[in-house]
Amino acid sequence: MSQHDVRRQIVGRGIPLHGHDIDTDRIMPARYLKSVTFEGLEHHIFKDDRQQAPDHPFNQPHYRGATILVVGRNFGSGSSREHAPEGLRRWGIQGIVGESFAEIFFGNCTALGLPCLAVSADDAAWLREAVARQPGQEMLLHVEDRSVRVGERTLQAHIPDYARHQLLTGTWNTMGVLLEAGDDIERLAKSLPYVTGH
Question: What does the domain layout of the chain look like in residue ranges?
């Protein structure tokens, strides 16, 4: 696999999002699901929340360019729309850390090469507050070590073995895996009577 697809660690500034059970309809409102190419989805991230609350973190200039989203419990619950993680990725988010993630949302993120690391409830709350106090400080999401570092503090994190393996090997990129196996696929296809007509 290409080294470009490997996700050992994500370094960047954080953007804190307070609250629990933030569902995919809040992340990406349903009226924007008509997109088939996902182009422009970044403009609709938290659209309704941002209109209702001008002080929403995604409206704040000091969080522009942030690459690590810091969330609460059960983030990404609700419908399975892949537009939600795709919109976040296109906005610039490269990794997410929080208390817990909805299973389908987590799988969709992994399939995009977007690591989701879980930390304890206390650590998630501390992290959101730390990022809010100092928006410019650098964070490190370490997929390989299963940790999150901010300043002098290192938090233990959890990520399932299968997702960690996919991110560390780049095999989350299924298209890349298929293209890399192109010769083997052709070879197998030629040996199948129902493909070759023999």
Answer: 3-169
Look-up of token digits 């299963």:
146
CB burial readout 150-185, b (16+ within 10 A) else e: beeeebebebeeebbebbeebbbbeebeeeeeeeee
The domain defined by 3-169 folds into: Aconitase; domain 4 (3.20.19)
d(CA 147, CA 175): 28
Alpha carbons 17 and 70: distance in angstroms, whole number: 6
Look at the pTM and tell me if it is higher than 0.85.
yes
Residue 106: which of 86, 91, 73, 114 has the closest Cα? 114
| pLDDT at res. 48 | 96
Mean pLDDT of 44-58: 96
Name the DSSP letter for residue 36: S
* 148: CB partners within 8 A, 6+ apart: 97, 117, 119, 123, 127, 139, 140, 141, 142, 154, 155, 157
In the predicted model, what is the mean pLDDT of residues 41-50? 96
Q: Which amino acid is at 161?
A: D
Q: Across the chain, what does the average pLDDT equal?
A: 91
Is 8 in contact with 1 (CB distance < 8 Å)? no
Checking phi first, is residue 32 left (phi over 0); if not, alpha (psi -120 to 50) or beta? alpha
State the pLDDT at residue 181: 57
